[in-house]
Design the sequence.
């Protein structure tokens, strides 16, 4: 008798389930999108009730039967999902099992700082700026990621990311740092790294290169200028490093700023600054490791996105006079 009862139940379940596939949608022709957040540890019943409440299905019981029939009622994944009102219950169920949660596309440009990245994430609705910045300085997270520094500035790789809505700052940071490692480590393996620079110093120098130019052909040349100056014991005199060290930079770099003491003011300190001033891309990292074979020691902006390079101070001063001092 028990066998017969079970068989009858399964037949009823199958019929109800497949009927439900066609009749659970409040509006099968609808195009409205609705967001639903499934919390960690939510029961399948609570999920079905929530979908009913959001008017994505009409009957919680039928949806639960559907999940049990397909053996998926214990396999749903938490997260923020976006559903169309016209979706069939079986399609909704499949998304919940596959974990196809809502994602936002963000693009980080080469050279952008952690503070700039935090703002981009905030504007995209991916957390708060201060929470992200605090996480970039979290010693536990730094240790977990194997970064021997006080901050993750320099290791948040610039790229396009698809980030799940509701992702924590820590999760976003891990994604960016792992992307950095996947690009940086192969460069180390195939490039003859100059012995005078450590891996940390390569990242610092690369961040300076990206801040100095966005012109791909110039990166190895600017790298060479910095390498040449370092070898000769000259100050690097990089404006972007000064700007990074200013707490309230208003967009106008002054002569006073150039003589304002700061650990990042390379007009005053010898060698490289103590840390990266942005997050360099692959091209800048490669340029930092493989500078051009040139003897330049100076460069000045030509105000068109490119620079004029010089070997002597006399030539450089003439270029400054031509391209900078005659500006109205």
Sequence:
């Amino acid at each position: 008798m028990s066998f017969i009862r079970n068989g009858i139940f399964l037949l009823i379940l199958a019929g109800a389930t497949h009927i439900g596939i066609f009749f659970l949608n409040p509006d099968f022709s609808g195009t409205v999108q609705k967001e639903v957040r499934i919390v960690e540890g939510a029961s399948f019943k609570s999920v079905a009730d929530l979908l009913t409440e959001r008017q994505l299905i009409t009957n919680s019981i039928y949806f639960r039967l559907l999940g049990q029939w397909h053996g998926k009622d214990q396999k749903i994944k938490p997260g923020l999902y976006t559903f169309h009102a016209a979706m069939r219950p079986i399609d909704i169920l499949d998304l919940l099992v596959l974990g196809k949660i809502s994602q936002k596309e963000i693009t980080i440009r080469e050279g952008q700082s952690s503070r700039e990245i935090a703002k981009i994430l905030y504007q995209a609705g991916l957390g708060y700026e201060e929470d992200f910045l605090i996480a970039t300085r979290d010693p536990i997270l730094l240790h977990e990621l194997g970064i021997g520094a006080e901050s993750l500035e320099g290791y948040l790789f610039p790229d396009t990311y698809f980030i799940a809505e509701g992702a924590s700052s820590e999760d976003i940071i891990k994604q960016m740092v792992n992307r950095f490692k996947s690009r940086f480590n192969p460069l180390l393996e195939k490039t003859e790294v100059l012995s005078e620079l450590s891996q940390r110093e390569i990242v610092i120098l690369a961040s300076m290169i990206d801040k100095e130019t966005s012109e791909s052909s110039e990166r190895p040349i600017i790298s060479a200028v910095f390498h040449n100056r370092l070898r000769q014991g000259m100050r690097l005199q990089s404006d972007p490093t000064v700007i990074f060290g200013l707490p309230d930079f208003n967009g106008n770099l002054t002569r006073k700023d150039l003589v304002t003491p700061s650990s990042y003011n390379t007009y005053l300190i010898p060698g490289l600054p103590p840390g990266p001033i942005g997050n360099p891309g692959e091209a800048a990292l490669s340029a930092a490791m493989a500078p051009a074979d040139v003897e330049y020691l100076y460069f000045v902006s030509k105000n068109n996105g490119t620079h004029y390079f010089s070997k002597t101070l006399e030539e450089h001063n003439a270029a400054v006079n031509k391209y900078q001092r005659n500006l109205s």
The radius of gyration is 28 Å. Residues 104-188 form a domain with the Dna Ligase; domain 1 fold (CATH 3.30.1490). The chain has three domains: 2-101, 104-188, 193-296. Residues 1-14, 16-24 have pLDDT under 50 and may be disordered.
